[in-house]
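Incident log, entry 3
Record: diguanylate cyclase (684 residues)
Problem: checksum mismatch between cached and fresh output.
Input:
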Amino acid sequence: MTDVSSLILPAVIGLAVLLLILVIHREWRVRRLRMDNLVLLQELGESQRRVKESSRELRELFDHSAISVMLLDRYDHSVRYANDLALEMFGVDSANALTVEVMQQPDAWPVSPYSLVDFESWLGKAGRLGMQRFEWKLVNRSGYPVWLDATLASIPYEGRQILMFTGVNISARKIAESTDWLRNRAMLAMNGDRPLSAALDLIVAMFQFTSPYARCAIMTLDEHTQTLQWGSRPGFGESFLKAMDNLPVRYGAATCGSAASIQGRVVTADIDKDDRWDRYRKAAEQAGVASCWSEPVLASDGHVLGTFAVYHDRPWEPAEQDIESLTGPLYLASLAIERYQARDRLQRMIAAEKTIREISVQLQTMDASSTDSGVSSVLNFLCEYLQVDRSLVLQGSQDGTLFEAVYSWPLLEPDEDGEGLALTREELDSPLSAIRAKGFCVIHFQQSDADDEVLELLMPEHDTGSCLMVPIVQGDRISGLLAFCTGDDKHRWQEFDINTVTPVAALLGSALSRKNLMDELTFQALHDRLTGLYNRGKTEDRLRQEIARSSRYGNTFSLILFDVDHFKLVNDRFGHNAGDDVLVEVAAQLSNNIRVADFIGRWGGEEFLVILPETSLESGGEVAENLRMHVAQRTFPIPDGGVTVSAGVSAYLPGDSIQDLVKRADAALYLAKEDGRNQVKVSA
Ligand SMILES: Nc1nc2c(ncn2[C@@H]2O[C@H](COP(=O)(O)OP(=O)(O)OP(=O)(O)O)[C@@H](O)[C@H]2O)c(=O)[nH]1
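Fresh output:
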C-alpha cells in the first residue's frame, strides 16, 4: 500500500514537470513564430519600399527620357503615367487628360503611302499577345506631323501588370522617305505622258505632308493673258475655284496675283483684313479660307511660271520651318511647269510644222480655178487646228479703204440686202494699228465699242468671245487680214498659234495674189481695156453659144448693133481722150440698162453689140429704142454734152451664122444712119 501511495507524489510531480515543459515549449514556439512574423513583416515592408522606390526611379528615368513614355492600365487603358514628351506630343497638361480618344487622331493626309494606325487595336493586341511594335503617325499641337516608332509591352508596375508605351520620334526619316517617294512619283509623272496637273498634285502633296492642316494649290501663268489658272486640283468648292481662276497678275489681285506681280513672297495672315482680297473675300469665306501665303514659282531665268499658295482655315503665318519645307516643292514645281511648257511647245511645233507643210503644199499646188475651194479648205483646216468657230480672209481694196470678206469658213451669210461683209479702214483702225505694232491683234468683246462693232460683224451669231487677226502682206502693204473668231470667252490665243498662222497668212497672201494675177490676165483676155465690157472675142463666143442653144431648143434671140453717131467729129473737136470718155460713158449707159441675162460687148471702135437671149425681133427693137433714149438723154463730159447712138437689130433665124446675124443688124444700122442717125432700125 505504502508503495502505491509513495508512487503517487513522484507521478504528480512528474506530470507537473511535463506540463511545465509543454507550456514552456509552447511559449517558446509562440515567441518564435512571433519573431518569424516580425522578420517577415519587416521584409515585406522593405520589399514594398523597394518596389515603390524602383517605380519612382523608373518614372524619374522616364521623366528625363528622350523617348515618349506612357503607362496604361491593361484593362481600361487609362493612363497612369505619361512623361513630358508624351504630354507635349498630345498637347495636354496632365496624364489625366490623356484618353484614348485624344490619342486616336484622324488621318489628315490627302495623299499618303501610310495608313492610319489604330492605336486602340494595338493596345488590345499588346494586352493579349504581349509586346507589340508599330509605327504611329500623329499631328502635334502646332499642326506638324510626328511619326513614332512605337512599342507596347506588359510590365509589372507597383505590384501590377500594366502596359508600357514607348515612342521614338522618327519624323525626320519619315518625312524624308515620304517626300522622296512623292518626288519620285512626281518625276515619273513628268517623264511619262501624265498631264501637268498630275505632277503638280504630287508636288502639292509633298508640302502637305509636312503641313497637314494646310490646303495648297499651284496656279500657272498664262503669259498671253497675264492671268493665273489652277494648275493643281485643290479640294476647294466650285465657287472658290471659279472666282480665283483667271486671276490677273497684278498687285492687289488677292495674294497670288500680287505675289506673281512682284515676283516675291506675299503673306495674307488674315484675309478679312487684307483689301487685296476685297473682290474674292466672299468666295474665300464660302470655301472656309482664312489665310493665304503665296510664293511665286520662278523659271530658271527668273521669270514667273505661276504661284504656290498655302491656305489655312484660320489666320496663320508661315514659320521658318514652313518656308524651309516649301523650298523643295517650289523647285520641283518650277521644273515641272518648265518641262511641260517645253514639251507642249515641242508638240505644238511639230503639229504646227505639219500644218504649215500641208497648207503650203495645198496652196502652192492649187491653180486659179481651184483657189476658192482650196482656200476654203485651208480655212476649215485652220478652224479645226485652232479650235475656233470661224476663219475669214478679208481682202483690202487697192486704195486700202475697204476690207472685204472674200472667203470665210463656215460661210458668212450675206446681210439683208444681199451684201457680203466689208469693213472700212476706219472700223479697223485700232486692229490695224496693233497689227503694225506687233504683227497680230486680238480683240475681245466688251473691251471697246469699236472692237465690239468689228466683232459683231465678223461673228454675228455670238455676243461674247474674241478674234485674232494677222496681216496678209504684199510688199510692205497690208493687202488683207486673216481673221479667226471664237465665241468662247475663255479661249486662249497662244503665242504659238499666232506664230503658226502668220506664215499661213503669208502663203495665203501669195496664193491670193497669184489668183488675182490669173484673174487679171483672164479678165484682160476677155475684156476691153477701155470700157471694161467684154471684148470682141468673148462677144463672138457668146454669140456662138446663143446660136447653139437657140438651134437646139428652137428658140430665138435678138442682137443689137449700136454705133456712136458722128464719133469722128467728137475726136476731132475735143480730142481723143474726150472721145475715150464718151465711149466709156456710152458703154456704161448701155450696160447699166440691160437685164442681167443680157450680154453686151465692144464690137469695134465705137460699136457695141448687145445680145438679148430668148427675145424676138420686135422686142429686141423695143429694147434698142429704150437704150438709145437712155444715151440720148445723157449729158456727156464734152462741151455741148450731147451724144447719140444709132442701132440695127436682127433676130436669130434657124441656120444663121454669126456673120448672117451681124450682117443683118449692120444693114439695119446702116439704114438708121442713112435715115438721119439717133434711131433704131430692125432688119427686114
Ligand atoms: N477716141 C477714140 N476714138 C476711136 C476709138 N476707136 C475708134 N475711134 C474713132 O472713131 C471714129 C469712127 O468714125 P467713123 O467710122 O468715120 O464714123 P463716125 O464719125 O462715127 O460717123 P458715123 O458713124 O457715120 O456717124 C474714127 O475716127 C476712129 O478713129 C477709140 O477707142 N477711141
